Please model this.
Amino acid sequence: MALEFGLALDFGTERAPLADVLDEYIPLLELAEGYGFHSVVAGQTFPTRPGYFHLPSPFMLLAALAPRTGLRLGTGVTLQPAWQPLNLAYDGAVLDQLSRGRFFMGIAVANAPDWQRFDMDKATVGQRFDELLQAVKALWRGEEGFQGQLIQVKQGIQPLPVQLGGPPILVGGQTPRAARRAAAYGDGYYAATQYRRSAAAEQVKRYRQALSDLGKPSDRPTVAINRLMFLADSTERALAEGGPYVSKVLRGYAARGAFSRGGGAALDANDPQLLENALDEVCLVGSPETVCEQIEQYAAIGVTRFELRVAPGDMPSELVAQTITLAGEQVIPRFN
Model:
């Protein structure tokens, strides 16, 4: 089975200015590119206090990376509340131009606190997201505006993206409506870091069924997933070396109740065995052989691309490089 592997890097930190963080990551991107990784993606959050987080401006970040790497550049994911259709269409087109057609966009609807902060009406969030996606795709195709019930755009945009019809859009979300939205208005489905494998499996089934209902190819659609990853020559060493950094990220998600969907026992942020309880469903931590067995399980449910969070929790660069090297030498070749 042929799978694609990219990097989902964590850029937000208190330990250094962003420019220094980018300088630290460039050798890692070069290492990954040499091993045949597909892409690098940046997530989006809206931080309100210091800490460890995704940045609020992923497009600006990717624009800074565009001349410094040959990897494809993506958002994994950007969030609906930050965007009005015209600025999303313009910024996406410019980023595609800057990257010479290497941009793809993961996007999701976000959550209630973000809707409240951006003064969005919960009752119309879903329909507005549907129309946002339709409007952006219409503008990227070169159409002269868009007319929806909630969103109206007068006139088209210039410049258009390099990619004919616009960059691919991968749509996230865990609800049945999100699966139908991805099938109707997207070019693929995107599962987030906190989605359990069992929840992702159910959503992929819905997505493929929605594609089939629309008369679109459904045998092997693009399905990307973010997974926390740390590799070492043994699972015991991986847990010892990478466990504290991976657990730092898991605790953040668990504290927000982000693992509550998809069945399985709830994950407690204060549980000293949090990482061990998350291994089977949420992250890829272990030896290359062990992780390859887990990746096969994801491939069996229809995942075609992994965006790997190999630098969690302010992990030192030498440990990040260890994971990239082991993945490049012992994981990627097995699936290509």
In short: Residues 39-168 form a domain with the TIM Barrel fold (CATH 3.20.20.30). DSSP finds eleven helices and eleven strands in the chain. The CA atoms of residues 187 and 235 lie 36 Å apart. The longest strand covers residues 223-231.
